[in-house]
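Before drawing any conclusions, I looked closely at one protein, both as residues and as discrete backbone shape codes, quoted below without any editing:
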Amino acid sequence: MDRLRAVRGATINPLSERFNLPQHQADGDWQDMQPMVDGATAPVRTSVTVEQPRTIIARNASPDVPFDRSINPYRGCEHGCIYCFARPSHAFHDLSPGIDFETRLFAKPLAAALLRAELAKPGYAPRPIAFGTNTDPYQPIERDWRITRQCIEVLAETGHPLTITTKSDRVLRDIDLIAPMAERGLAAVMLSVTTLDARLTMTLEPRAAHPERRLRAVQELATAGVPTYVSISPIIPAITDHEMEHILERAAEAGAHAAFFIPVRLPHEVAPLFRAWLDTHFPDRAGKVMSIIQSLRGGRDNDPGFFTRMQGQGPWADLLRTRFHKACRRYGLEGERITLRTDLFRKPPGAQGELF
């Protein structure tokens, strides 16, 4: 394993061809000489570009997701999860869904001010805002930028409900805000635990928190009274599926309220990135893994259909669901999804002026 692959998830950095983006042409500048000077395995450093959107609440009408609005403080994600379905969004910026997605990030420092302004608009009707639906709100750069925390502060002040999905125990930093909100019925958190194998984590999701740290976060959140869920997502056949029952057992021991899972999804550019990752790290079973994934996805690498994209289809999907439900019954993880309150919401005063 070379140095690049040891610290990043993607093993390649191809540009997307879906939007006719220009491939890089050698023009004799210093970047063309970099491999000769630094070596092919030189580490790729993370850069952050400030983004200034006009709005911060994204809306969706997908019938198979349990929320209609979300906030993404960042574009791209340094966690580097090879399977991340958000990778193709980097192609919109003329950047690769591969290593660029993990290293060339965008931050939205005006997010909290934009949120305050949107909540103050006439006619705004509150419903839970989901964090972590695209890229992780607690990825490493949140330590310094604190954009997620600033947004939570606005929601706490206004009594607005929120949900958080993350792979990071950094969420505990904000437990001083989240726990009081949960006590009022305004917050729930989901920790994603894909595998308990730390060595596998190093290549599968190289800059995400250690699995044990995520489970400790589940425990601390649950102890603080925060409704906390564990998501085994994605389940990768012949790579992580054998861990399902053990992860659920550990989640129950940590005090999780309930659990969920999604079979691996490989939309657009994610499929060739994932295939390259398999060829690098699991060449002995790459064909088997892709064969099972295709059996889950109607004979293709990916099935974009509503509902089936989240559940899979065929015998393998049926087997995963049967195992999952049996294990949830065994470990007491059949709790219902928490219904968050919206009646406590109060519009923020004077929000519009803070943007100028």
